[in-house]
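Posting this for the archive.
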Amino acid sequence: MHIKQTNNEKRFYIPLERTPETVITEEYKDCEVRWSKIGCRRMRTILIPATEEQYRAYMQPLWREDKRQQRHGTDEVSTDKAWDDYELEVPDDFNLEEEVVKKELLAALRHELVALQDIDRTILLMLADGSSEAATGKAVGLSQKAVNKRKHKLYALLKEHLKDFR
């Protein structure tokens, strides 16, 4: 932050945030405390005289962060921040290709299940939930043998439609 001077020479000052924890040397103990804007935040600071090079070296990262926040907003989260905040850890046996194929398979399976008749979806759902073929047959109005045959036909149909995922 630079302060305008009456003469043609500019003087540069680095704003140092003043908090109860800030360590101030005797030289700056009685400096005037003023409100300054550092990056996007306003805070109470004292101004430390500096050369132009020191001032620019100190302020450039703050300007860069300010510009990034203006472009992307404050809701942008870096992977490093998420990693630190949530202590995320990738398992040793993680395979990205397998995960992508698994998600594609699930999407294709959902698509195929939507295309089935209601009775077929009910049969598959009840069997997946652990119901017996007899109990499933009672619920849908078919015999146990009819449920068994329909189940095998459905499995064969799904296997055929999803053969690309083997």
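The mean pLDDT is 82. The CA atoms of residues 97 and 103 lie 10 Å apart.
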